[in-house]
Specification:
Layout (H helix, E strand, L loop, with lengths): L1 H7 L8 E4 L5 E4 L6 H9 L5 E4 L2 E8 L12 H24 L22
């Protein structure tokens, strides 16, 4: 139960924090990926303030700037491809209907329009 609580009671933030370590390195980490005690201490500390919890010394510098949103994909190629397929299917149906000649007596046996629609092949 304690393990479940530790995982579910973490501060949920979509924005990662930029963290500074004592050796001068900087890293980005989401608060829910940090140890719970460290995330709580960093959340309560002012930006730039060093926090030491259970042997970890870290300073939260600032939120990581959000990346620029990717441009929406251009749907015109998919729409043109769908229109081409629809036009081809219409052409194929018309061409088949124009070239097809039904031979009397060989119609499909299940066609109710035929006089002998109950026989079997």
């Amino acid at each position: 139960m304690a393990h479940y609580r530790a995982l579910t009671e973490r501060p949920q933030s979509a924005t990662p924090w930029r963290l500074a370590l004592p050796d001068g390195s900087v890293l980005d980490a989401a608060p829910d990926t940090l140890p719970l005690a460290l995330a709580d201490a960093l959340g309560a500390a002012a930006p730039g303030e060093w926090v030491t919890v259970a042997g970890w010394t870290v300073a939260r510098l600032a939120p990581v700037p959000a990346p620029a949103p990717a441009p929406a994909p251009d749907p015109s190629a998919a729409v043109r491809a769908a229109a081409r397929r629809a036009a081809f299917v219409r052409w194929l149906d018309h061409a088949r209907a124009a070239r097809l000649t039904l031979v009397p007596g060989l119609e499909h046996p299940g066609d109710p329009a035929q006089p002998d629609n109950h026989h079997r092949h």
